[in-house]
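Memo to structure team: turn this sequence into structure tokens by end of day. - J.P.
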Amino acid sequence: MKRRLPAAASAHRPFVRRALAVGVGLAVAGVTAGCQVNNPLTTELQYAPADGVQADIGNLAIRDLVLVGDGSGPLVVSGNATNRGAEAMTVQMAAQPSATAEPTTPQGGSELQLGPREQVDLATKGLQLTGVTSKAGTLVPVSITSSTGGTTILTVPVVPAVDYYATVTPAPTSS
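Reply from structure team:
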């Protein structure tokens, strides 16, 4: 009876297999890592998850700013304003002249007082922009001025008074 001895190369096969597996793993990791360079993670991108726009003007933080209306009357300002500073401020909002405005109609704005560290829901303050004939679905340039932070112009969307904007209506006028 003859005895069989294992081949000398078989002792190296587990090492070769492991080295090959590690090499393939590193190659796959290197190839797939390149995907991240061309396609950044969307969870790292900043965006406003709301209908409106946002802006920071000094210590004034504006969030979810929209104009509610149908173009037949004043546009009601809806959104949120926060004074992040330690002193009171005055906030003024006014529509900028645009191609959708009647040239003979003066455009009026609104003013709001914010105390230190105060946050307000703009829809409850009765702020309106008059003389603007923009309909729902359009964008209106609006200048926002903070007495402590300067002025910026935002392009604000006009939305119809339906769904959760159904309760946003112009403030009653005194007669």
